[in-house]
Design brief:
Blueprint: H1 3-29, E1 35-39, H2 46-62, E2 66-70, H3 77-84, E3 92-96, H4 99-106, H5 115-118, E4 119-128, E5 130-134, H6 143-152, E6 158-161, H7 167-179, E7 184-187, H8 191-200, E8 205-209, H9 210-218, E9 223-227, H10 242-245, E10 253-260, H11 265-279, H12 282-290, E11 294-295, H13 300-321
Length: 326
């Protein structure tokens, strides 16, 4: 080989090595400063609580603070827009709940972003369960009795939700769609205010996160009629699944994390790996179980597939019900 060619190949190899160094260094140095996790709902709700749990874990594991930034409004769209516009360097993340998949259809034509295109999925954290419940003043004790009562009294029941497009709202709308009943939707700005009015009887029906409702169900302040997944729950073993009296029904939420499009793959993979360690930890699992949820570990690609599938599923419900932002 001629000397000139050998020198050229050495320089080329050196250039390739050098070009790879910044990416490796970037992944090793991440995070270089505190990380902001933007949550589209008020403090105290299930997505906020789960975000704080995983944020605390990542803080302890990665040596920088993971700070929760609550930006409620528009079913999480305000938070999503803020993250879409943030630098794609891994220092601004987004909590992704079920409503993120719903909003693509619910707010169709009104958004400045395309969620599936503009947010890079990182990891799922939890699988979130809902319980269907009524105020004790409603004269029903089973799901079939509720369906019969609602059909005999159209729009007599007020149906509470933490906001349009949220997981509990969509669980309720799917129930209405499959039973052909009608109720008056009353959206709130979070689970806390909705639950307070349900306990007071201002609204009479709701799907709610299981953790916040279990104490009231056991105390008799609320009456549980069904749970939303396909199998019964250990926490409420005597409560049937909704699908036991309404075949084909299943509504399960989830909470995950995402980042702005263009965030380096090595950063996304690093976060996914650290979250995976959390989900395998028995103490972390127990803390999620205390909230009535279970861990859900997915790769970034699998999370992206779930988002696409859920966007299609709940888009059909939104269109069928003729839902509009409230």
């Amino acid at each position: 080989m001629k000397p000139a060619r050998r020198r050229f190949l050495r320089h080329l190899a050196g250039a390739v090595t050098l070009s790879a160094l910044p990416r490796v260094a970037r992944a090793q140095a991440y995070p270089a400063r505190p990380v902001r996790i933007v949550v589209g709902f008020a403090p105290g709700g299930p997505n906020d609580i789960i975000t704080r749990l995983i944020g605390q874990w990542l803080t302890e594991r990665l040596g920088q603070a993971f700070i929760v930034d609550n930006r409620p409004g528009a079913s999480g769209n305000i938070a999503t827009e803020a993250v879409v516009k943030a630098p794609p360097d891994g220092h601004t993340l987004l909590t992704i709940p079920l409503s993120s998949a719903v909003n693509a259809t619910l707010y169709e034509g009104r958004l400045s972003f395309n969620f599936l295109r503009d947010i890079a999925p990182i990891a799922t954290v939890s699988r979130n369960i809902f319980v269907m419940e009524v105020h004790p003043s409603v004269p029903v004790r089973t799901g079939p009795e509720l369906i019969a009562y609602a059909k005999a009294n159209p729009d007599k029941l007020n149906m509470g939700s933490p906001g349009s497009g949220t997981g509990p709202h969509m669980a309720s709308e799917l129930f209405k769609m499959l039973t052909s009943i009608t109720m008056v939707h009353v959206p709130y700005r979070g689970s806390g205010p909705m639950l307070a009015d349900l306990l007071a009887g201002q609204v009479q029906f709701a799907f709610d996160g299981i953790a916040s409702s279990i104490p009231h169900i056991k105390a008799g302040r609320l009456r549980a009629l069904g749970v939303s997944p396909a199998t019964r729950l250990e926490a409420l073993p005597d409560i049937p699944t909704v699908s036991e009296f309404l075949p084909g029904y299943e509504a399960v939420g989830w909470t995950g994390l995402g980042a702005p499009r263009g965030t380096p793959a090595e950063i996304i993979n690093k976060l996914n790996s650290e979250i995976g360690v959390a989900l395998a930890d028995q103490r972390f699992q127990s803390r999620l179980a205390d909230l009535g949820n279970s861990t859900l570990a997915l790769t970034p690609a699998a999370f992206g597939k779930l988002l696409a599938e859920e966007t299609e599923k709940w888009g059909k419900v939104v269109r069928f019900a003729g839902l509009k932002p409230e």
